Known about the structure:
Layout: E1 2-14, E2 20-33, E3 37-42, H1 49-56, E4 64-71, E5 74-75, H2 79-84, E6 86-89, H3 101-111, H4 116-129, H5 145-155, E7 163-167, H6 175-190, E8 194-198, H7 202-208, E9 211-216, E10 219-224, H8 226-233, H9 238-249
Parallel strand pairs: 3-8, 3-9, 6-7, 7-8
Antiparallel strand pairs: 1-2, 1-4, 4-5, 9-10
Amino acid sequence: MIRADHLVKTFIRNEKKNRKSEIRAVDDISLTVKEGEIVGILGPNGAGKTTLLRMMSRLMRPTSGQVSIRIGEEEMTDEIEIKRHIGYLSNNTKLYGRLSARELLQMLGTIYGIPEQTVEERIGQIGRILSMDGFLDNRIEKLSTGQTQRASIARCLVHDPQVYIFDEPTLGLDIISSAAIIDFMKQERERGKTVLYSTHYMEEAEYLCDRIVMIHHGRIISEGTPAQLKEETKKDSLRDIFSGLVLSADGEEEQPGKRGGSER
Length: 264
């Protein structure tokens, strides 16, 4: 389980004439993701999604508030141990292009202190799960966009974490690559893993996520299961719900035929 309590993150922006202003990227967000649950984070560009995920992965310190991670009955306090239980994927991860996907995973296994035989077994499992067998030994710089993304996701799996925090893992991918990632997330949920999943694809979120959290201007504007959100808003699609809530938060009226969110 991963829990955020009253998270706030502010940044200082330099403006003209040596003036500075404060930007509140995340504004008092509290959120809990349970074991065996996939929670989707939706929001327009600049809503604070990536900043929120970085704080929940303990890669970024909040200005105020705190993040706690519990594995079973034990609340984790050691930062190194916490990172052993998290698989974090950013939307702009860079990999070592001159390594093969297999060499990358072997290197990470060594960093995590995983026995060599266990690492090889994990690589075999990951290769099958993400359909990577055909390019595991190819250099990363030679891989397609979808193959590179699967290699990037694979690096988050080698240590078999209990918590996954994925920031737009299917952005720009083809249907086959996206399906492999989505199917994997569903399998991990069945194994009792905790998944926090950001996406711009409304249909993907509705299909995959147990619960949806919509954020705008750094705040949660709605939260619930897809069915609950539809019932509350009297709308049939998550895209229409998203559009209406964002426009309402901005003090605008939704225009007939105007839709928000991204489509695949």
